[in-house]
Amino acid sequence: MEGxxxxxxIVVIYMAVxxxxxxxxxxxxxxxxxxxxLAGRSLGPLMMAGTLAAAExxxxxxxxxxxxxxGAWGFSAxxxxxxxxxxxxxVSFVAPFLRRSMATxxxxxxxxxxxKPSHLITxxxxxLTLFVAxxxxxxxTSAIIGSISGSDLVTVSILVAIVVTAYxxxxxxxxxxxxxxxxxxxxxxxxxxxxxIILNGAGGWENIKTLITSRPGFENHFAMTNVGWKTIxxxxxxxxxxxxxxxxxxxxxxxxxDIKTARLGSFLCSILMACYGxxxxxxxxxxxxxxxxxxxxxxxxVAAMKFAPMIIAGLVMASVVAATMSSASxxxxxxxxxxxxxxxxxxLKRDATDRQILIISxxxxxxxxxxxxxxxxxxxxxIIDLLVFGFTMRSAGPFAPFLFGFIVKRVTRSAALSAIILxxxxxVAWQLAGEPFDIMSLVFGSIVSTIVFFTVSKISLGLxxxxxxxxxxxxxxxANRISEKRYQK
Length: 489
Fold this sequence. Notes:
Number of helices: 22
Order of helices and strands: HHHHHHHHHHHHHHHHHHHHHH
Shape: globular
CATH superfamily: Sodium/glucose cotransporter
């Protein structure tokens, strides 16, 4: 313990505070399963924007952006987060349908409209993806803390898994939302304060620009479009598709106190992400200018430790830990909600009481946290490749049935099932083929899903198949009205 530096202790104190917040919230706010899974459908615009941003700004948007800036993308690596913000902005137009549905999960909406087979496939795809996503964030957090403490990865991974699982299990989405606000303040304010200090320590903007562009092959490293327009457009499409169908994001829209809040919170989140986008890229470039020989993944921690005072370096590391922990907890509560609502309550115990659901939910969080830790500790698993593959599988096939299911009346159940299966298979095949023409597998699979959805609907309707029932009925609209009325003065 005596060998740990002050930066490590700043991170440890930060994690302890998260547990304290969760304990406070669990006793004050969690009274029912709806509180646990959806924060009582009470999130205001600022709370929703903060928790949505915290869920989506993870290791990839912090350490990952610095790593890409250090590598081939250069300054344009900031587009990775900007495109996510644009994706969230586009989801804002879907937000009213999400809140009005009075649903708890994405598969629930699929099941309402298209029946059991489509529901079950979507649930399994989503659950498997979130398992891997949680493990990825635990692994990323552990690697960061391990690099600044010198502690072994197994010990740190266990500590991280315990902290994230504990505060998620204690208060569900309520505690996740409250801790996410702290996370997002650390991420945005912490990074915004630290970046100019690190930049100044590295010699200033012109100095790092001269050092980098003077090297052969790095002349365009500061161009805004160095990453290429095809990649930028592909990222926007990818983010829109995965955010509009991903449980960890959509659950926040379900939890908004009303339709207006769902839309406004989404808009605010997109602005927040746009403002944050290029900050990690600048930090990555500071590392590249002075330490081009280090591994790209170490760009952010090295820049922070070398060019900033210890307290600022601790702030940066706490910000990164905040980003990865918030994503991990968001994935954990999402996977718990999917299991509890779409498997346990739907197929195993339909008559479960609210108290039983709440207890099962907390047990499921604990089990899923342990399972994610086991995955994270396995060095043989290529976690990033699995993560990309999982998100592709989770969103490609269900994309068209879920999104167009809200607004298109004349569609059929067989069309949805065909779109989910063929869209998913097309995404897998495209990825195995190496993503020809630089078209992302998720984008290609979603296009196939859309074409199949409308084509099969037209054919099956012509053959006499009945229209699928609506996902949002008069009963859901009335329940939404009553829910919103609770918060009207």
